[in-house]
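Lab notebook: predicted structure, single chain.

Context: the supervisor wants predicted structures on file for every construct in the current expression panel, including those that have not yet been purified. This is the next one on the list. No modifications to the sequence; it matches the entry in the shared construct table.
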Amino acid sequence: MHGQMPQEIEVWYTIPALRRALAKALLDQELSQKRIAGVMGITEAAVSQYLHSKRASEVVFSKKIEVEIKKSAKLIAQDPKKMMQEMMRLTRIEDVKLVTCKLHKNHDQNLPSNCETCFEGDLVNIQTAK
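Prediction complete. Output recorded below exactly as produced.
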């Protein structure tokens, strides 16, 4: 494929994979499938597919990322309102961005080998948005 933006890769692959891992980690925190669905804002069927690796199974995260996902699950289990905040935190982790970058390069063979598009926005100071 050609012309996909990194954000498309993130939406189609990285975020679903994070949801899958987070659903499993929330189950380990003893939340029911129904509760996980409510907290994550998805259907129980989607949670079931994540838990049985029938959805988003093509992305495998490193142990380092899995540790961060477990931290997020613990925080979310204690305060479900932190779901969005934790998902944003997870997507900003450099190792997660590297996963997205690798997927982007795999899906768009026309990208230069030294492409750093996925990281260029990190150089912008978002404090100026006030």
